[in-house]
Amino acid sequence: MLELERPDTLVQRVVNSIREEIASGRLLAESRLPTEHQLAEQLNVSRSVIREAVSQLKADGILISRRGFGSYISKTPAGTVFRLPSKNGHTLDLAQLFEMRLWIEAQAAGIAASRRNAADLRRMEKALEVMAANASDFDLSAAADVEFHRAIAAACRNEYFLAFHDFLGSQLTAARRTAWENSAALRGGSMDAQNEHRELFAAIALGDPETAAKCAERHLQASAGRLGMVLPNSVYHRSQD
Amino acid sequence: MLELERPDTLVQRVVNSIREEIASGRLLAESRLPTEHQLAEQLNVSRSVIREAVSQLKADGILISRRGFGSYISKTPAGTVFRLPSKNGHTLDLAQLFEMRLWIEAQAAGIAASRRNAADLRRMEKALEVMAANASDFDLSAAADVEFHRAIAAACRNEYFLAFHDFLGSQLTAARRTAWENSAALRGGSMDAQNEHRELFAAIALGDPETAAKCAERHLQASAGRLGMVLPNSVYHRSQD
DNA sequence: AAAGATCAGGTTGTCTGACATTATTGATGC
DNA sequence: GCATCAATAATGTCAGACAACCTGATCTTT
Known about the structure:
Chains A, B: Residues 8-76 form the HTH gntR-type domain. Chains A, B: Pfam families: FCD, GntR. Chains A, B: Keywords: DNA-binding, Transcription, Transcription regulation. Two copies of one chain form a homodimer. Chain A is mostly helical. Chain A has ten helices and three strands. Chain A folds into two domains: 10-73, Arc Repressor Mutant, subunit A, CATH 1.10.10; 94-226, Up-down Bundle (Four Helix Bundle (Hemerythrin (Met), subunit A)). Chain A has a two-stranded antiparallel ribbon. In chain A, a hairpin with a 3-residue loop joins strand 1 and strand 2 (70-73). Chain A is elongated, with a radius of gyration of 23 Å. Chains A and B meet through helix 3, strand 3, helix 4 and helix 7 of A and helix 3, strand 3, helix 4 and helix 7 of B. The structure holds a DNA duplex.
């Protein structure tokens, strides 16, 4: 099935153009941007287009504008948002994304093992119970699975880390949905998953970071297998070269 | 020194408004947005304001619009960009940010130890040499330091992970610049840092993930100390509770 | 009756021009 | 020298228009 790709809108082209000016160093940090009128004339587009483009760059923290004064490049021209780099434009590399999540999740498990308090453990255990009680209900048990892993990330007590964990999760489920619509592959191995969860939980409860991290890694690796994904080699148990 | 709080621009308020509408579930995924004319009338602003707001949300992957048809909520209403959550609006928690970087860097070191190839090792070594040769030149040695850690992250062979590593680095240097303008505190401990780097490099070259991760963690912890930062307790060497 | 062509209405994309609000700057007066 | 004030200019917002395009209904042809 073929897809027709369309030319970029003017706004998109202006955004790319300004981004490149900055990346190439022709526009330096904290230097002033030409006025919107000038930009409109230089690029031969209307001021509305310029304003929409600048509006996007402002939202990314790349530009700053002050009414009555003008717009200038931010002190941090790299911006304040993180976008997953996508080469061709749309498709994400599911395997690499999952691999990164595996690493984050493993690190989270290790840290959680040394920082978790009683409330964290209760929250994890509760999620496990819900998962066990609703093993037949896919939506419920999937939600409990997310909650279990989220409780682990939350036990690290770092809001940025937690936010990034959530971000990866949402990106992954979204990408998976668009890739294969059949996530039913999970159903088969739910018993194994439950055991892996229990192991992981035990290591965290015991306060054993190394074991927790390894349990998490094994669990995620197994999950990938259940989803039919092929990851690069394992991190810790790989043959030496 | 006090700061004058200004009311948000109309565009910003519209953006927040639509975001909230989605977060609260009043606007469902894949459902259509009112037309720009309707939105303008409902919110009592001009269409230009609506267009700028929608433009931002499109850039974040929250909205999608098709000419002649309309705009609708994306399948992934969480968006495709990651923003560091900032409560009050501007200041980031430097300690938490640094802590997260420490974790990422430690994980990167461990993975790199099992994935690095000859070219990776050469790249790291080269960075170390540059750093040693220009110990007195702050800018040069700082750049080499960045390059060293970047080579480690690159050796993990995961472009998303590398991109996130870079993002954290840029955010951190930016935040540090605005916090204290004097990063001269680094100068004193450059000899220690050099030793830590050598240790870390040796572990990676040897292919010992656990040691590499621990070296990286110690190094970053020491760096934090040299910067006068107070981090939460270490992950692995913390007293049991 | 079914398939294709045409048309009408609506929506986003872009352009134009205007006014409001705010910051900079230089002249003025003392 | 210093405060005041007008002139200038930039962004923020508004209003209206046309272009390009999509959808669905109607009309035409087979």
